[in-house]
Model the fold of this input.
Amino acid sequence: MANWLVKTEPSECSIDDVAKAENKTIPWDGVRNYQARNFLAEMAEGDEVFIYHSSCKHIGIAGIVRVVHSAYPDPTQFDSDSPYYDEKSTTEKPRWQAVDMTYVKKLDRLIPLDEIKSMPGLEGLPLIRRGNRLSVMPVTDEQWHIILSGA
Done:
């Protein structure tokens, strides 16, 4: 199994929204960056994922979800009413991927970005690399344990 981090704006989909999901599974869709899409395609059932709240007052890692369905064509790319519609995508040759995730837990406290940046051993974490704006990124086992030890 692998570990990941996904960024989300809490106003769009927070860890609390995932916890309250009626069917307890949410699609992680709408990713429109090729490298992030490739990471989504690598996700497998059982992988654990940090939910990172961004573009908000309290930025940081808020909780954990688990992948319950590996990558499949993102249906929003075919929906002309969706903000994630892609007129160049076809069902024969989809460009974008989605995965399904389920709630695992909300952390006892949000781990703020400044704190993550100061944790020894996280220097290679893509989240804190200068200029990295990816919404989906891998997290090594060592990085995962370091972050959880600070939770």
Summary: The mean pLDDT is 93.
